[in-house]
Structures are given as C-alpha cells and as structure tokens.
C-alpha cells in the first residue's frame, strides 16, 4: 500500500531541516517550568508502574528522549526522519533510536509502559488521529501512561519555509477538548490536563494531556 502523502512530506521536510532544527530549537532545560514539571511527573509515574519501556514517538534529535533517560526512565526514540535519527544516535550513542511511523508502530501489543508524544502529532491530519491513537492504545500495557503535548487551536497551517529551509508539511491545530475526546474514543482515560497561553519562546497556546490505558478487569 502506498505511503500516505503527509508522511512523505513530513519525512522529507525534517530530513531537510534537521541540522538547523537542532541549532534553533531550545533544549529541554530551556522549556517553561510547567512543561518540565509534566515531563518529570510522567517520568515518576512510568518508573513507579514498572510496566515496560517508554517510546518517545516523534523524538527528533533525541534531546527529550535523553532528558527522560536522565530522569531514570528506560526510554527509546522513534522518528520518521532518517536524518533526525542519525543526529540522535550521534548525540546519544547509549540510547536506542529507530525509524518508524506513529500510524503503524513496529511494537507488540501491550509492550510499552509509556508513550511520549511531545509536539509530534500536529503534522497528522485530523482524520488520521484515530488510527494513531489506536496504535498508542494497542502498544501500551494495561495501566501504562501517555503524555501528549502540543500546540492547540483551530487552524490549519501550510508553511512554505521552516527553520530556514523549504518545507512541504502542514500543521493541524485542534481544540484541547477535541484532542481529549479523540484519546478517550481510542480507549485512553485522560487523568490530567494543562493548558498554557502563549509566553516566552512559545507564541501559540499549548497544552499537555496525561492519559492512561485502563487495567484489565
């Protein structure tokens, strides 16, 4: 079956911008305190649950993957872009990084203790999100956690430039209530939400959702 065109656009665009992305996007230490706090809370939850490793989906150059590893989490990264994966492996040779798509994860059912989707789903057309979140549900162990963070709104963006290079991806900003509903439709229970207005380096509203796959009866 042919690859969806949006995946091709995302892969090619991030292969193009990879080196400049690393230079221009601040590291986790420069995140706002609330976002770092959500990552720290997620790390504690998955460590305590001990249900399996965490997959950082859409890991880019691996800096947030390494941040979670520094918090004591068994974690590996997955990204669509070979160039991003190459940079991640070069920067963090002790961690595992693999190429892959959120639409079809190469993982067993119930394999993961946690999933991090950190600013990595907004290039996914809304009609594909149910498939992506179904994959999250499939691969999470019962009782496992998802931390999702991204921009929110009600807008479709079609940039022609990104990080100083031509790009062909699109971005889809959805209201937080809609994201919550999509996760719950996939069988994931949202247990916490954080909404933040633009501020500092971030010029759009953004949010985090913490969700959990129910334990089996």
Please, how many domains?
Answer: 1
Major sheet summary line:
7 strands, mixed
C-alpha-based Rg, rounded: 16 Å
Number of strands: 11
Structural class: alpha/beta
The CATH homologous superfamily name equals: Vaccinia Virus protein VP39
How would you describe the shape? Answer: globular
What is the topology, as strand order, of the major beta sheet? 3-2-1-4-5-11-10
Low-confidence segments, ≥5 residues, pLDDT <50?
Answer: none
Order of helices and strands: HHEHEHEEHEEEEEHEE
What is the percentage of strand-forming residues?
A: 25-35%
What distance separates the N and C termini? 37 Å
What is the CATH class designation?
Answer: Alpha Beta
- Count, helices: 6
Reported CATH architecture: 3-Layer(aba) Sandwich
Mean pLDDT rating: 96
How much helix, percentage-wise, in residues?
25-40%
CATH topology: the name is Rossmann fold
GO biological process, one term: antibiotic biosynthetic process
Pfam families: Methyltransf_25
Organism: Streptomyces cupreus
Keywords: Methyltransferase, Transferase
Short descriptors:
Rossmann fold; 6 helices; alpha/beta; two-stranded antiparallel ribbon; 7-stranded mixed beta sheet; 217 residues
Task: Summarize the structure in words.
Helix 4 links the parallel strand 2 and strand 3. Helix content is 35%, strand content 26%. It has a single domain, classed as Vaccinia Virus protein VP39 (Rossmann fold, 3-Layer(aba) Sandwich), CATH 3.40.50. The mean pLDDT is 96. One of its GO terms (biological process) is methylation. This is Class I SAM-dependent methyltransferase.
